[in-house]
Amino acid sequence: MTPTNTPLRQGRDALQYRPLTVKRGVNPHAPGSAHLIMGRTEIVATITLDDKPAPHMRGKKEGWLTAEYAMLPRATTDRQARERNLQNGRRHEIQRLLGRALRASVDLKPFRNQTLYVDCDVLVADGGTRVASILAGHAALHDFCDALINTGKLSEWPIVHNVGAISVGLIGQEIRVDLDYAEDKVARADLNVVATDTGKIIEVQGGAEEGPIDLTEYTTLLQTGVVAVQSVMGDMARQLAVIQGL
């Protein structure tokens, strides 16, 4: 039952994520790319391989992966100014999350003295942009690695974990998966759960919004998020079945 005075879910139940579609190879200039739509949130992710090591990785046995995140001016209801060298704390926080999540998925030894850039751009935002960016970035990495394998530039599949993410929150007393913007605004607590398709946790962000929650509620939120990530990754695997490793 939907709690009183809380947003409706437009036909999906509490534990159902929004309709997901993902397509790879959408940018002809990038060696790896993906376009992901989750509900009304829409992300394009592209991969760039730079033949220069990150400064802190010089002389190391592996390469580096870094992520950048940006939102188009009309991705939201009101226009936002373009981020031209602006110090935006939220953007930097999301970029660090994306980098940590995606580095956990790839063996970077084949990219020694190189840097992988994953650019995630939000075309339309309706909640969950950071988790959708992780999903889009992971799909773009698969597109990139698939091309390397098919062209003989790599002999072994470098993605060691299929990594996904989902938001989960408490709306009243109800746990809901994949919050849209209207739900996120009224959640008592919400988490962004980053995990593998085998149920291993990589990172959890979030907490209570309207006062403390108890350990049982937090644990249930986390368990629900991990299970939802596995479902999302299964859905992506079916859509991207042509990609080796999924």
From TrEMBL:
One of its GO terms (molecular function) is tRNA nucleotidyltransferase activity. Residues 16-144, 162-224 form the Exoribonuclease phosphorolytic domain. The keyword tRNA processing applies. InterPro entries: ExoRNase_PH_dom1 (IPR001247), ExoRNase_PH_dom2 (IPR015847), ExoRNase_PH_dom2_sf (IPR036345), PNPase/RNase_PH_dom_sf (IPR027408), Ribosomal_Su5_D2-typ_SF (IPR020568), RNase_PH (IPR050080), RNase_PH_bac-type (IPR002381), RNase_PH_CS (IPR018336). Gene3D superfamilies: GHMP Kinase, N-terminal domain. Phosphate binds at residues 90, 128-130. SUPFAM superfamilies: Ribonuclease PH domain 2-like (SSF55666), Ribosomal protein S5 domain 2-like (SSF54211). The keyword Manganese does not apply. Coiled coil: none annotated. It is an enzyme of class 2 (transferase). Signal peptide: none annotated. It catalyses: tRNA(n+1) + phosphate = tRNA(n) + a ribonucleoside 5'-diphosphate. Keywords: Nucleotidyltransferase, RNA-binding, rRNA processing, Transferase, tRNA processing, tRNA-binding. Its EC number is 2.7.7.56. Phosphorolytic 3'-5' exoribonuclease that plays an important role in tRNA 3'-end maturation. Removes nucleotide residues following the 3'-CCA terminus of tRNAs; can also add nucleotides to the ends of RNA molecules by using nucleoside diphosphates as substrates, but this may not be physiologically important. Probably plays a role in initiation of 16S rRNA degradation (leading to ribosome degradation) during starvation. Homohexameric ring arranged as a trimer of dimers. Belongs to the RNase PH family. NCBIfam families: RNasePH (TIGR01966). This is Ribonuclease PH. It comes from Deinococcus taklimakanensis. The gene is rph.
